[in-house]
Write a structure and sequence with these properties.
184 residues, alpha+beta, Nucleoside Triphosphate Pyrophosphohydrolase, 4-stranded mixed β-sheet, 3 helices, globular
Amino acid sequence: MSIKTISSREVYRNPWSRVREDVIERTNGDRGVYGVLDKDPAVIIVPLESTPEGDFLWLVRQFRYTVQGTYFEFPQGGWEVAEVDPEELARGELREETGLSAKRMTPLADLWIAYGAMRQLHHVYLAEGLTPGETDRDPEEDDMTVHKVNVAEFSAMLLDGRVMDNCTAAAWGIYLTWRMQQNA
């Protein structure tokens, strides 16, 4: 390991995250400080519906306070608990945000979100065999809307700025890689 933790202290906590400040020592002996945002595990779901007319994806669109903008993204989130069954969390987030239930949930990969500054694991799932139902959103998701788009439109959205969420882009890349391996 090239960096050793000398000390660590929590400087802030709320129900969704914790911020800690670590005093570190590099291999050359220089000391420094790392500010780390700790969050419980989360999921992101690629809801794919294959029809005779083509493949469609289900997206949510919501205002993101930190960037003061409204964007499209795959359903995602966490339950603010450290120990959770990832598939149960994925099924729950999909239903809460979109109202969809999935016949099949396929785990695709685990990714660290923004690991240069944050410690949060993101479990990536493919959801298929989708059935509509009622949403059960959190209060901060009251402006959220659900959209079904074909894959070509989604690709355009990634390039024209309607989708700016790096987790959505990464999950799509993971799915495409997984699909390529399945067809090999």
